[in-house]
Amino acid sequence: MSKYFVMAAKEETGCPSGFYYVYLLNTFDAKTYKTGGYGKLPWYTGPKRYGTPIPPFPSDLFLVTENTKYEYDIRSGSSYFYVLSEKFASIISEYKTNFIQISPVKYIDKNGDGVLGKSYFVGRTKPLKKEEVFDLHASKFVNESNYDFELLKIKNEFNFDLFDTRYTAPIQFSLIISEKMKAHLEREGIKGVDFLDLDLLKLNKDQSTSNEKPTYDPI
User: Fold this and answer.
1) 209, pLDDT greater than 70
2) Which partner from 27, 64, 201, 203 sits 20 to 30 angstroms from 216, CA to CA?
3) Residue 174: count of CB within 10 angstroms of its CB
4) Which stretches make up the Immunity protein domain (predicted)?
């Protein structure tokens, strides 16, 4: 059985704490990119609000940043996509994950100018059922809904190296990584990530509603 870790946000140079402000667009206009309805795009609305399953990313995408000093290797861009550095995107291709599409983007500033020396990708994941991932008998859940966990155990036969819990533990969502892939990321000097031992991570029972934060900052 693999040992697993939760990937949590870490504050360091180039990786400030707080919300990650980027905009993923299929067209760009410097005057309207924040007010032109980007929130209606499928990778922001999600399948329920969009009305159909989220379609594949189009071939031309713009990732707009208002802070060109960002140096994150991976961050959540919304509830339905991640932003990956070129380094992270290269590493992830060597492992079994639930990412189903990783696409390059044009990384630009608020004026539409390319950010020199930085290449980014966006990725989306395939939902996993909790029965596929969790040992429900060994795990300890906060409430009867079996969505929010106090203690989480992965099934012995589960063999992914990286997956997310967006659809299985939506309040506490984050990426979970195998010990093998964690070691690879650490060798490569991945920035802005802490690795929390899943076997030791326990959440307070009081943190059982959508208005409460987990004890870590999810990626």
Assistant:
1) no
2) 64
3) 20
4) 56-199
